[in-house]
Design brief:
Blueprint lengths: L8 E7 L12 E6 L3 E6 L5 E12 L2 E10 L2 E13 L2 E10 L7 E9 L3
Antiparallel strand pairs: 1-2, 1-8, 2-3, 3-4, 4-5, 5-6, 6-7, 7-8
Length: 117
């Protein structure tokens, strides 16, 4: 995992097999990271979101992100645990702690690719 996410662009895919039902399914998410902020674009639904994050590089191949994302007047709080299997790709676990709609506490897993590493 990189030491920082600043300036990186990720592509996230979700695994419906191991996740909860999501009222807004999003197959692919492109995320652009700046120093402590991010912009998300859902490729399938053309949704766009912004938020703030804190990133911790935990060692070779492991990292954790905690985030606060704005969805209209609502706030979504979640964390993402990263496990890399190569320099620019791997798997993640998304754990939502607060969300605007049921199930407002949920977990999903999927894979990611860093597009500009």
């Amino acid at each position: 995992m990189p030491k920082t996410l600043d300036g990186l662009q990720f592509l996230f895919s979700f695994s419906e097999e191991f996740g909860h039902f999501d009222p807004d399914p999003m197959d692919l998410i492109r995320t652009n990271f700046k120093k402590h902020t991010f912009e998300i674009e859902s490729i399938k639904n053309d949704y766009q979101f912004i938020g703030e994050y804190y990133y911790i590089h935990l060692g070779k191949g492991l990292a954790k992100l905690t985030a606060r994302q704005i969805l209209g007047n609502e706030i979504i709080r979640y964390s993402i645990a990263f496990s890399c299997n190569s320099n620019g790709s791997g798997f993640y676990i998304y754990s939502q702690m607060i969300g605007p709609r049921p199930p407002n506490i949920k977990q999903n897993i999927g894979s990611y690719v860093i597009l500009n590493l």
